[in-house]
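Weekly puzzle thread! Below is a chain. First person to post its structure in token form gets bragging rights.
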Amino acid sequence: MTTVAAMLAARAEDDRPAVLDSSGTWTWRQALAEGATRGALAAALHHGSSHRGGPLHIGILLPNGPEYLFWLNGAALTGAAIVGINPTRRGDALAADIRGTDCALIVTDSEGADILRDLATGVDPDDVLVTDTARYRSLLGAVATADDIGGAAARRRIADAGHIKEDSLFQLIFTSGTTGAPKAVRCTQGRLAGIAQVAAPGYGYTADDICYCPMPLFHGNALMALWGPAVMVGAAIAVRPRFSASAFLDDVRRFGATKFSYVGKAIAYILATPERPDDADNTLKSAFGTEASVRDRERFQTRFGCVLIEGYGQSEGGATLNPTVGMPKNALGKPAPGVSMAVINPLSGQECPPARLDEHGRLLNAGAAIGEIVNKSGRGKFEGYYRQAAAEEERLRNGWYWTADLGYVDPEGFFFFAGRAGDWLRVDSENCAAGPIEAIVARHPDVSVAAVYPVPDTGSGAGDQVMAALELVPGAVFAPVAFAAWLAAQPDMGTKWGPRFVRVSDALPQTATGKVTKVELREEAWICTDPVWWRPSPGDAYRLLSPEDCAAFAAGLSDHGRPPVGAPRHR
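Winning reply:
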């Protein structure tokens, strides 16, 4: 075990490239000096500690770029803690994120400053550093001049990083918020360094790699799957402000990228871009991420010549599944030796029976086999949520770590993903999970992205109906008759699983990391600005939803004492 500070200090005399963006290149020596400058500035402004007596909490509200990377370096070297602020949050929710993590200093740009304006963040306006202003440049310059940053003082600060402890808080990483309000996960210097020590050799990182970072740096994927391993081996990190599917290949070629990380639907969005005859003419070797379908992983390797390595883990670190050679195509992997993980029925608290799969890997006993993935060995690497004791206790009930992810396990012990805990549906008194339905719908050749979720059954006082929201591949048009026939032909489509409602969208709501968030979709149900198709019963044809249909649904909900569904949102 080591610390992030020690990993960085090992790069102090390294003159190989460390940071690349559209404006230039910095070596590791230069990137650490820039970090030391920012660490010194933070200490000068706030005397090194927060008002709660712990390390200084520095909120970063920036797009990906050298400035973000320099502040990561500076915080690690000086023992401060970075709070990665989600730029997609707004208003009171954003202010609560900042207050709840005790930020004493915020680093942002003019765009971020506009978002923060008039919010009750609890941070003094003088402690909001806006990077594209003369004041910020003046403050950095004054610290550099006074403290000889870049010379002996910088080298001394980097050398002093060896005194930072493994249990020193380094990151507060917000969860994605796909199923509820994001929570700030504690991540110490030792934990992040430990992940890098395993991931760097495990996924083949070398000092010669150029690691392209399209995922936001406030999220665990970019930090744990790319930034940490790159620091560990001294690889270069290439950044662009925000993920762009259309610019992906051009960026790869411009930087000469050999690796990248991804999460959510990023791979699907890249594959939805127009194909070029020279797509495979690139420098990519491999990428690491989560939630790309088997179909998309195969298509990506064929088109771009790059292997996608899928794993299962969470920002919390409480449960990990490792891929193995020869495992079933859709599997997540197995737990590490000595770690006891299981799929638990949340109602009975008992382990679910093993999955029965046909020769094509299709699940035959979903109702019995699907439950919540649980680490029975305990909390794993989970270091807790920041100031959210109740949420932490819920995660660790009965002494186990509950992932809030649904899954199933086959007789050989391989785990499979079946959706989020909030993805349970109860259709005609039968429980089912959204994940398997989603996987079937996503196989349709015209579907780029699919999200399946429950909406209220308008004909009863309880229960759900299945709704699917789709993004189609470019040029495709939803064909209701053909879609219904295709669904009926799928041998693994359960009798209660067929979507009653189908929403066709140009852009589904998603988190900053590209994960489709179903919170809005469930709230809106069929009341939305996108076209919605529906069928009164499973054997009926799909037809466009009309205002009269919506009025009838509202009356049905009211008659059964159920609350109405939400109002349309314009995005």
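Puzzle host: Confirmed. Bonus trivia for everyone else. The radius of gyration is 25 Å.
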